[in-house]
Every structure is written in structure tokens, then in C-alpha cells.
């Protein structure tokens, strides 16, 4: 009788820990090694050593500190994603600088991040978070760093010349909704800069992210895009030529006047902000004028919202499996029969423009 090989749920995940702190290397390795699904195969004190060890040890997942001497986390990540792509989970401080660098890491292809413990007392909570994210990371697809992910901020004067002025939404305007989760910052880093300055629509983005990181993501996208991007605030209204990004830790809801309201009601699908919550509030206002796009991510958030958009006469685009880090949310939309188009990431911007021109 043929022996059954290990399933994805049973496979032992081989992890390389990279951190300049001897205490953190020891602590992370010790606690991760206690989990039956994880074995730590090595550790590195900096990026230089990590790049030497990866081809020798061939880890399934790398945990990588953002702040390191010799070769910092971002530089190391670029090398990993270019030379030997694999799932990377960043270890991030919660300082302002730390959140900016973490967002950069996610746009470069890091799958997720772990908040670095602020003291020894919360190490166990961080390790529990790390275990969950490493197991999820091991099941994701990873792509080599492409030119789309190597975008650098555009000089403000140049953006000023390209950008058209924003204006208030009127009843004939369209609304573009984009929802994303795991792998989303990388996908948004490709998609949003490809939207033209004269896009005839207001844009709403919901990316699953915790408190403190969406401002940096909005600023990052704003600096490389022809449309304006900002983290949404209470009272904001949709404007053509501008994207509003839901703030981490809050559900974003549009009231009957089309104004943004934020709340911390219970999580939906285990997340806040939730895509379904925002879409449900938008459909009564914009319905048939909506184009919804569901990008890479785990789970099924966005499926209910897409159904509401469909019933109202709107249009849905799902990212194709071939370019998703995780084909979860788009798959759910597709299998529910709600996807009018299924497109690889690099074709979604043109698909959006073609559809907007026909609505």
C-alpha cells in the first residue's frame, strides 16, 4: 500500500529567523520550535548572513527584522525576493518609522508582519501571533520582485503636473471599490499607480490592516500614483480623482449623505475594516454605478458585498489565481458566480477603464 504524503496541514514548516538581537533570535527560535508544525532550521544576525544561509538551508519561511545593521531588513527583503523568492514575515516596531518601513516591505512582497514585543512580558502574545502568521505564510504563493513592485516615489512637482484636480461626485459619476487582504499592499502598489489621472470615478479601498499602518500605506500609494490617495477620516466624501483608504482597526461606513463614518463594531470575518461592511453601506447610494474589484486575500470577505453590487446592477472584477498571493477572496467571489471578469493583476487597470467607459 502506498504511503500517503503529508498534506499542507501536516507539513513541517522550516523557518529561518533573522534578527540582530541575540535575545530575540533565541526567544523566537525557542518558542516557534515548541509548535508541532514548525522547526527552526537556523538563525542569522543580519541580512548579509541571511543571504548566505537561505540558499544553503532553503527555508520555507523567513522571519526578518526590519531594523538591522550591515544590511537592513528592506534591502535584505529586496535581495530575497529577487534572488530566491519565498514567504517572508517581517518583525516590525510600532514606531512611526517602523510602520513606514513595514508598509514598504509589504509592497515589496513580504506576506505579513509581526509587531515586535515592546517588553519581555508580551513575548508570548507576539509568538502566538507569529505562529499563526508563519503557518499562513507557508501556504502562500510568492513571486520574484518585478518592476511593478520596485516603484519609487514620484517628485511632488511632477505629480502636480500630471494630476487633475479632484471634484465632488455627481449622480452620473462612477465609483470604483477595491478590496484586498494578504498580499494586498503589493497588489495595490501595482494597480493604483496604473490608474490614470483622468479616471472618471471616485475610488474606495479597503485593505485588511491593523491600526497604525494604513496612514503609511495611503501616503505610499499617494506618492507613486496619478490619483490622490488618503486615509479616510470621518466626514470625508467621495471625489472623482481621489481614493479613500479605510483606516486600520475601524469599519468604514458611508452614511445616507455619502459621508464617511467610522466605528469599532465587532469584527466581520475576523477583520476590521471589513470589505463587506463598506460595500453594503455603498450599494444603496451608488449601486449600479459601482465597479467592484476583489484582489488577493484569504477567506471570503467581499463576497456578500459583491452580491449586493451585482443585484444593484454593478460590475465585479476578481483577480485571477495566477497573480494572487492567496486565491481566497477572489475565488469565493468567482465560485459564487459573481465575477463578471477574472483578470490577472497587470490587466485589471485596463479592465477597470474599459468598463467605466461603458457604464
Count of alpha/pi helices: 12
End-to-end Cα distance: 59 Å
Content-based structural category: alpha/beta
**CATH architectural arrangement of the largest domain:** 3-Layer(aba) Sandwich
Strand content: 15-25%
Count of structural domains: 2
The secondary-structure element order is EHEHEHEHEHHEEHEHEEEEEHEHEHEH
At the fourth level of CATH, the homologous superfamily of the largest domain is Methylesterase CheB, C-terminal domain
Amount of helix:
25-40%
Radius of gyration: 21 Å
List the helices and strands and how they pair.
Layout (H helix, E strand, L loop, with lengths): L12 E6 L3 H12 L4 E7 L2 H11 L3 E5 L7 H11 L4 E5 L3 H13 L3 E4 L7 H16 L17 H7 L4 E2 L5 E7 L3 H8 L9 E7 L6 H11 L3 E4 L7 E2 L1 E4 L5 E4 L5 E4 L11 H12 L3 E5 L8 H9 L3 E5 L9 H7 L5 E3 L1 H14 L1
Parallel strand pairs: 1-2, 1-3, 3-4, 4-5, 7-8, 7-14, 8-11, 9-11, 14-15, 15-16
Antiparallel strand pairs: 6-10, 12-13
